Amino acid sequence: MSTDRRSGTSSLEIAVVSPAGARTARENGADRVELCTGLELGGLTPSTATVEAVVESGPPVHVLVRCRPGDFVYDGEEVALMAAEVRAALRAGADGVVVGALTPDGTLDTHALAELVAAARDTDPAAQVTLHRAVDQAGDPVAAVAALPGLGITRVLTSGGAPTAIEGAAALTAMAAAAPGVDVAAGGGVRPGDIPCLLAAGAGSVHLSAKSRATPRRAAGWVPLGAGGTSAEDDTHFVTDGTVVAAARRALDTTA
């Protein structure tokens, strides 16, 4: 397993959906990538083939494991599926996984998380396990972060329970104080200019999607597929914007 290039310092993570995005992130200064599919849905589990291809592209890869869009309250079948996805991602070469689950009343689903952490540790004892932004829909996000060390989770991706991380900066500070051994990764609407404030608030790393819409390449007609009623111009996919990644890298280096 590879490690962050700037071990011991604040790190930059970029959400990507493809090998091309991973290469762009790497070339513009990312320390690691979070790999998913369906960014427009908040991110879903990518295929094993995609994980393998992105691992080949470097840098270190953390794989989002989320079996469907919507809430983070899962039944037993869904948890078992995600445990299998955790194992598949790590066997494909990922350095870590990004997971989360809540109960209907908005607390951490400790039983589901224990199963997902066990799947990771049984597959690779060195795997890093991150709690994803399910924490931001918890009734008490700070209390949820305080419970993570007991679950074997060493990192949390969070906006501090706010729509954006910069709006949740005070909660990020409280999270860092509540769980000193947990890396609080600020994510959610992060722009390069936000990075100094987020680090000052106590974030140990920052997470950006750094995305832009790809220009549609269709030459023929267009009809809507699925729900949503989007336009032909908006019916496209996201790609990683290297200029945003580079700006984030500069902001991180200047601040750190």
Could you characterize what this model shows?
The protein is an alpha/beta fold. It has one domain (11-214, 235-255): Alpha-Beta Barrel (TIM Barrel), CATH 3.20.20.380. Helix content is 35%, strand content 16%. It contains 9 helices and 10 strands. It has an 8-stranded parallel beta barrel, surrounded by 6 helices. The chain has a two-stranded antiparallel ribbon with strand order 9-10. Strand 7 (183-187), helix 8 and strand 8 form a beta-alpha-beta unit. The protein is globular. The chain starts with 10 loop residues before the first strand and ends with a helix.
Which tags fit this structure?
256 residues, alpha/beta, TIM Barrel, 8-stranded parallel barrel, two-stranded antiparallel sheet, 9 helices, globular, disordered N terminus, cytoplasm, CutC-like_dom_sf
Number of self-contained structural domains: 1
Shape, per Cα inertia axes = globular
| CATH level-3 fold name | TIM Barrel
Multimerization state = single chain
Low-confidence stretches: 1-8
Q: In CATH, what is the class?
A: Alpha Beta
Task: Write the topology of this structure.
Layout: E1 11-16, H1 19-27, E2 32-35, H2 48-57, E3 61-64, H3 76-91, E4 96-99, H4 110-123, E5 128-131, H5 141-146, H6 148-151, E6 155-158, H7 169-178, E7 183-187, H8 195-200, E8 205-208, E9 211-213, E10 238-240, H9 242-255
Parallel strand pairs: 1-2, 1-8, 2-3, 3-4, 4-5, 5-6, 6-7, 7-8
Antiparallel strand pairs: 9-10
Helix pairs in contact: 1-2, 3-4
